[in-house]
Amino acid sequence: MRNLRTISLVVLFMSLLVGSAAQSNEVKSGNSFFEKGEYYRALQAYEKARDSGEKPDILVKIKMAHCYYQLNNIDRAYQFFTEVESRLTGNDLVVYALTAIKSGLYREAIELCQRAKSNGAGNPVQIDQWIKSCKWALENNSFQADYLINPSEVSTYGQSFGIQYYKEGVVYSSSSGRSSGMVDRQGMDFLNLYYSNLKDGEIQGKRLFSQNLTFNYHVGAITFTSDYKTMYFTKSIRVSRGKSKIKIFSVAYDGQDWGDEKEVSFNSNDYDCAHPALTPDDKYLIFVSNQKGGFGGKDLYIAERLPGGEFGIPENLGPGVNTFGDEVFPFVSKSYDLYFSSDGHIGFGGLDLFKSTHVEGKTWTDVKNMMQPFNSSMDDFGYVIDPRNSFQGFLSSNRSGEGGSDLIFYVEPITTPVDSKDDTPEEDFMEMPDAFSARLISTFNGTPVEGASVVVRNAFDGKTVARGLTDEKGDIFLILPNELRRKGQDFAVELSKEGDYIPQKMIVSIMELNEIAKNGLSLTPIFNDQLLDEIGTFVIPYRDETITPEGIAVLEKLASHLKLNPNVVIKLNGHTDARGDKYNNLLTSQRAAEKAKRYLMNKGIDGDKLIPRGYGERYLLNQCGRGKLCDEETHLKNMRIEVVVWRIID
């Protein structure tokens, strides 16, 4: 729902003359879509040109970076901006600074904001506010120790419109998974309302909420009256001359299904109204609108509910709540506290969650950031509280680092015994490694990999810790913040060099950083050779050190390839999930890889050309790291042996 929660900054893209004679039709098409704000289609065109062998020039790379930013793929936006950093001026620097903020790179973002100001770009008041936020984030980097924020298994198909409690379950926007071929401006499937039961706080199953509430376009951001007989929701409506506006509607439950759809009286064809939220006494409806006369891009408004489904004249909640930015996704608790998301108040980046205290009537004050782990450097929104247990709930966020996709997260209290006497000596962070450093080489010939992107995240919350590019020797050196130099700290590391190497993800503990600095890391190249590239895609699943029937089938195919190509040397890299003892997982992965080697040797493959190596839980395929709630099937996806072409013997 990018168009409903984007930053209010009006980005004035640089006006540049491009020699059309040297551009392909795909690039020309991409430029046309870009100028219309069709960033998804523009990116498709640019990538098609690149896939056909055309190297993007500086101007196209800058536009691709903007596209990724607008599509909320912050990692890719940052990577492209970094490649052309020396050529950035004006408002390109502003967007680059915002990308750095969303990546959690606050010190770098401060420098970029200052560069943008010196270029006379952007609104200096807004830029000063972003600098202030970055400094605040650096000073407030600690976590609340009493809550866990864990991803749910609910599929929102890339974007979330929030979730609401309903009777014995929850209602949220999702899709059947059967694509109709229609997508929105961000390339996402259109979503309808679905219902899931709750069992012990866990989401169970999924079904369409109502046959009467299926639409061709997005529907979501809902709220129910306390008796669950009326629901307000948001959907997009076509208005004059093909334009669309976002409006709020109500439906009533007749005991069998939902119907009698009506527009609320304050909707307009001149502005958007969205994200309705009822107060617990059903007296007021708070909503989001970008109508004129507000304080920023999108403000929170309040309207009194009147008899007959009518509403009083909406009132802006005022400058104590609203800012120059966007205030979205309101929720009012039983105690009348107002929760909402904003990118205008001081925060960690993107949309942060805030809590405001009710004074009286239509007035809230004392807006406070909900801090980490509720917030991250990315977008955090749609917080709701369980009506039966005020200590748990849900929120939505794109903090997971998976291309900007929104996920719904469980909010759960941590219950730990209180020990009145703690004789544990204070931990000295000076004893811990102070940097992530390594030499990155090719798995094929051991040559340095220059210009590869390295992203280091806090494995517990997905927040970016540091990032950079390898130098001509393949070396990378990234300083770690002191607050993360502690025992038990894990990092999620992402290595990539687009078009040349297969991306790699890994989970490492802080105690492994010295070993990585000593031994280095590697990436597997894309060979552009059908046989070698196919071998590099082979994955052999196993369970409890036993290779599955599916894995045996892969080994049979691999043996056939190796018999026909006896000069190929491969590595068999064993991996496990992140459950149980770490050292035992390392041994398990090694034994599984050795079993795969023995199987291939029994098929006549030379054992000298088979190198088994166990990595334990270091390279996870998904977000099921230690402490994460995942089902059995998702955990088991990490139990595999990957085949890597190591070298070719002449």
Describe the structure.
The chain is an alpha+beta fold and 650 residues long. The protein folds into four domains: 138 residues, Tetratricopeptide repeat domain (Serine Threonine Protein Phosphatase 5, Tetratricopeptide repeat, Alpha Horseshoe), CATH 1.25.40.10; 267 residues, 6 Propeller (Neuraminidase), CATH 2.120.10; 96 residues, Sandwich (Immunoglobulin-like); 121 residues, OmpA-like domain (60s Ribosomal Protein L30, Chain: A, 2-Layer Sandwich), CATH 3.30.1330.60. Helix content is 22%, strand content 32%. It contains twelve helices and 33 strands. Strands 30-29-33-31-32 form a five-stranded mixed beta sheet. A four-stranded antiparallel beta sheet has the order 1-20-19-18, with no helix packed on it. The longest helix is centred in the C-terminal third of the chain and has 21 residues. The protein is globular. It starts with 24 loop residues before the first helix and ends with a strand. The N terminus is likely disordered.
Q: Which spans of ≥5 residues are poorly predicted at pLDDT below 50?
A: 1-21, 416-426
The CATH class name of the largest domain reads Mainly Beta
Main sheet characteristics:
5 strands, mixed
Specify the CATH homologous superfamily of the largest domain. Answer: TolB, C-terminal domain
Strand numbers in spatial order across the main sheet: 30-29-33-31-32
Mean pLDDT: 86
Gyration radius from CA atoms, angstroms: 26 Å
Determine the oligomeric state from the structure: single chain
What would the CATH topology of the largest domain be?
A: Neuraminidase
Assign a percent range to the helix content: 10-25%
Distance between the termini: 54 Å
Strand content: 25-35%
Inertia-based shape: globular
Which structural class should the secondary elements be placed in? alpha+beta
| CATH architecture annotation of the largest domain | 6 Propeller
> What is the number of strand segments?
33
Number of helices: 12
User: What count of domains describes the coordinates?
Assistant: 4
